[in-house]
From TrEMBL:
Record-linked Gene3D superfamilies: alpha/beta hydrolase (3.40.50.1820)
One Pfam family, short name: Hydrolase_4
Ubl conjugation found in the keyword field: no
Matching SUPFAM superfamilies: alpha/beta-Hydrolases
Name the UniProt record assigns to this protein: Alpha/beta fold hydrolase
Alphabetically ordered keywords of this record: Hydrolase
PANTHER family: DIENELACTONE HYDROLASE DOMAIN-CONTAINING PROTEIN-RELATED, POLYKETIDE TRANSFERASE AF380
Amino acid sequence: MGDARAIRTDVRFRSGDGECAAWLLLPAGMENDPSVPIVVLAHGLSGERSQRLDVYAERFAERGYAALAFDYRHFGTSTGEPRALVDLGKQLEDWRSAVAYARTVKGVDPRRVILWGTSFGGGHVITAAADDPRIAATIAQCPFSDGLTAVMAMPKKTGLRLMLEALKDWTAAKLGKPPVRIPIVGSPGELAIMSSPDSLSGYRAILEASGLPFTVPRIPARYVFQIPTYRPGRRASEVWAPLLVCVCDRDQVTPAAKTVALASQAARGEVKRYDTDHFDIYVGEWFETVIADQIEFIERHVPARTSTSR
């Protein structure tokens, strides 16, 4: 396919009561192949497209795929108040809206939409693919697969403290007061959504690799109420398109064993395992290993060039 850089443009699309902001990347030479597949990408919990989603999208575009990397409502330059609100229903709606938009992009084959999600977004793409039988393939990277398992893996004291903050935030929302916020990452023992030994350093590494200043996002604590009942990995058995699940074996954020067990239930599921922690695969050598596996997967199942366009 060559390594010519893709053309990247800023786009926006409607979703629910607002708009999602996104980057649309079109591969070089697309004018010679007017019907290409498209990879739709979104991040994990509180993640924004500026945090290395463009790097993934560019790698796919270099191989002849269009790519759409978007921010959920309430994040990045998408609309939505309060800022940094993680709302499960809205994010799943944003995925549906992103796929619908991707299918309208000129030169894109609407029958060949590929989903790519990581961490919390990795759970979302399993749900989205189960709901939409027209999806051509799905990549779930270190996915949030089972909320109940994730909660049980937390120190009990941390879980109780998070629930208390969630109750405070829920009450504040009912009274029209500003959100009660909790940090996304912290050191072990600190009050944070993710406080595994690698969480703080791993998040810092992603920001540094993205050229962004180090700040810890704080989200409205009501998100915690959604964790135990969100179990998207259970829907892997409903995904009929090829599904690649990239698992970090030392993951303490989204426990690996449960993810592997659920992924094995997919009709056309494939599991790739890496001897890493949750955050390792976004940067450095592990990123190179994982992205190569993901490219091999989509080129095998959804070739960028069809036999009629060569």
